[in-house]
Amino acid sequence: MKYPLLHELFDNICEKYPSRIAIEDAQQRISYQELQQYSLQLAACLMGTGTERETVVATLLPAGRELAASALALFRTGRVYMPLDARIPVARLHKMLTSTGCEIIIADTSVLDAIQRMLKEAGTCLRYVMVLGQGEPQLFTVNAARELTAAVAITGHQEPSATEPSDSCYIFFTSGTTGEGKPILGSHRGLSQFIHWEIREFNLDETSRVSQLAQITFDASLRDMFVPLCTGGTLCIPGQDIKFQMPALIRWLKHNSISMVHCVPSLFRMLIKELEQQGAHAGNHFPDLKYILMAGEMLYAKDVMAWRSLCGSSTELVNMYGTSETTMAKTFHRIAAVPEDPGEALHVGQPIDQAFVAIMNGNRLCRIGEIGEIFILSHYISKGYYRQPDKTAACFVPNPLEGSTVKVAHRTGDLGRYRKDRSIEVLGRQDDQVKVNGIRVELQELENIILETEGITQVVLKAMENAEKAVELACYYTGTPQDPGKLRKRLEEKISGSVMPVCFMHLKEFQLSLNGKVDKAALPRPTHVKAAETKADDAKTPAESEMEEIWKEVFKIAQVGRNVSFFSIGGTSLKAIRIISQIYKRFEVLLTINDLFAHPTIAALTALTEKGRKKEYAAIQPLGKQDTYELSGVQKRIWAIDQFSDNGALYNVPEIYLFEGTLQRESFERAIHSLVERHEILRTTFELVNGEPRQRIHDADSWNFSLDFHDYSIYETPLENAIALSADASLKTFDLEKGPMIRAILVRLSERSHVFIFVTHHIISDAWSQEVIARDVLAFYDAYTTGRKPVLEPLKIQYKDFAAWQNKKLMQRLDHHRSFWIEQFVDGVTPMKLPLDYPRPQQQTFNAKETTFRLEESTSKSLRALAQRHTASGFNLVLSLVNLLLYKYTDQQDIVIGSPVADRGHADTDNQVGVYFNTLPLRTRFCGEDTFGQLLDNVKQLTLKAFEHIDYPFENILEDINLDIDKQRNPLFDVGLTYISFLNIGGEEEAGDQQEGDAAIRVKGIYPGFKFIKSDLWIKAVENGNEPFLFVFSYNTDLFRPAFATKLIDDFRNLAALVAERPDATLSSLVEKAREAEAAASVQKQQQVRDRNLEVLKNFRVGTR
């Protein structure tokens, strides 16, 4: 079917309603006739450039008359509309322009300086800049000197040739153009078909008043813009300050009689929350609002229930689904009844006209209820990724269904299933840069700006921490000395005050390093006040004493001085989370990890806390009795993997303990049953309820669980037999639906020696939980053997309560976290190019072996000192070393490492058993000329920011970044890192003594080893006080030989020693040095082999004489 193109439809509307208002904002009201005339004027200007059809034209304009007229002008002249955000850094803008071959920019006067600076610094393929303002549009040409010169005035009117439906008409970047994402190329045909469908489906006419809430860099902004402009309605544009202030937005929606809103569910929830906080009573709060169309996120039954309880049902709510690659939405659900379960996600309905959604399992269409991958089929999807044929071929694939006229399908990477009525249910998804005041800053970019100052011949910026540990910029320059005040004032015209250097230091010359570059380490440091060191027993205020109690509890130490650094006593991000959680609970002030890292002493942190704004401590509320309960985000992912994995033991978590002493078996068995009674999660099973996984909690009295007992004292090697039994127990699969999810075995080795094997499924526990379990069991055992009452504090909540609280919190705080992680992976991920010994299997395997080793004591000591100098945690240090190791093996300078971390930011979770972890995909970008110290600082800033967004589940990240599914490997990283700062895993772990007398036992942990691995390579680092670092390297045996692990460990040892000796050396020089040492060792080894062979030959000759 052929649809009129949008500019043609718009022109028809202009003939019908010339005086109606087309665009309305706080400053102006533009009629259709005025908008049409303006767009024709811009079209004539574009035709006068002589550029070809489908030339890419970027707009750097806010929403309003100029942007709408520009889009119409580009459509009618056959050019490609590419809206960009004028606020993005110049370097990033330059990259977007050059990657798309953009020849023309349409902008207003506010961004002219940025364009001219870009031309001067880098140049582009840019030929023209059209500047819009109050008067006539001005056209500038870019001359050979990369300067803008006024073009000859356009005279006459050159008619553009007819635009074809198949012609390209827009480019949107998958990242929203704030990063370097994939540029999606859309066609007139696809865009026109969707706008026509929406107008027809919802019977829209000239009375429509549609809000423009979508960012202009998202394709949804075209829907906001052209639905009203193609019906004779009005496009209503709120001010930028109104969009993000819910009270103002609510007033604006009412006052402007908005009839249709397109938004994401997050904004919808924010509106509901604001109405609730205003104490709004049930009623029609938006009498003119007919439709709210939502897409981009999951919409839940509770969202619709909350809206209808406040606003009634006069506004129709619509849930939509699609991808930017398929030209906006391709399914819709006009919501009538909603499920009874508030936490149930709503389905996305049926396909729109001329679209089909195929849910595939391999090469066949899924049955009703069967989970598969979503493919979208339509003649009206986009053309793919502009100038990226490989990425296009990966996502725009041959139609998997036979007999269809549609040749190409978009492979979304989303999982879904058909409901009984064939509606669709979406289930989810299979640099020289610093940060100042939360703003990412390109140092080179700022240096170039400062270098423009007359008299300055060379500039170096250096990031450093002030007395409060906040990052500041210091500017060093050579040439003519400058008055700092006057220089700062001149730079304020080009540099934001938030990233302005705090000091300007004139030097006669810069000292150079051996590689001929400026030696930043030799630059003089601006003076800062140094806090006096104090002893642990110094006087403290009452608030500081309370803070000290928190630190003592978290660090498990007897005392700590008010000016002792958090990092000097082994501070980690995990400990920071626990401290912040306790501060919130005791002081009712909510801080961030950045706050603690910037104020790393009791004195500084207490002062910050006392200045903080009070926020009443919000405990997690227990749920009422229910038949079943919702799963947490990480539980859902583990459940889904368990359903589709052939390896049922992949998520088994074994723990082995050796008990030495007289064990009272009855008391111990009673302690185990008390543990199960105390923690509901240990008697939980998982089942499907209405197609959704739910957890069911069983009564302790009726729960079918017992402690197995084996007597191995009859064997010659009872301990070895017990460890073999533990291996069998850890490989035995759990039935998630029938349960139990735990396996407890007590093995008698002798009268005074036992082994306790405790295996859990990861869906109910994590590493922290194992510590809680061990502590609780020993506490119960101690009570029962001494006749005392257990002294454990009653649990205020259970895991099911946390799961509900977390899900609710995620729905309220989604956008902030999502934006961070999307920005991290907006340009895709390059797989790790480790040298494999065997071809990678078609399906990912998980078989593993491991090797344990320690670093030398002197190396460990030097590395700890290095970390403290950079106020970096042990985790930051190890992560930096692993990045360096991988750089040596792959030459890659953009590396993603997955790290599971405890997500127990709320104080109520401290003593809980459950799966309270999240996997953080930590992406480090660096270059070979960085020093290791710079890499460490880079990693430190990365992890600080990542921990601020720890609450966003890993599975949500995978869903949002829309990676291509590769069944051969982990979806986002090939190397994992676990960092532990409280265990001693050198084969045995001391867990302490338990009471005295006949029932006295000594407990040691036996490290069971891991049989499975969830990536190609996994590194576990263990830091135990001042002992040398312990490492466990696990590798996939289907990819690597044991010799690879041996070489990997040797290289890691060498690199760690080199870093300890030369922390200011560049990464490339460290790698080169390690390779030289490797080559020398190889030569020496070959010589030793030759010497031995000569000796054998000599002895042979002597013996034969």
UniProtKB/TrEMBL annotation:
Protein name, per record: Amino acid adenylation domain-containing protein
Source species, domain of life: Bacteria
GO molecular function annotation: catalytic activity; phosphopantetheine binding
Residues in Carrier domain copies: 538-613
SUPFAM superfamilies: Acetyl-CoA synthetase-like, ACP-like, CoA-dependent acyltransferases
NCBIfam families: AA-adenyl-dom (TIGR01733)
GO BP: amino acid activation for nonribosomal peptide biosynthetic process; secondary metabolite biosynthetic process
GO cellular component, one term: cytoplasm
Organism of origin: Chitinophaga japonensis
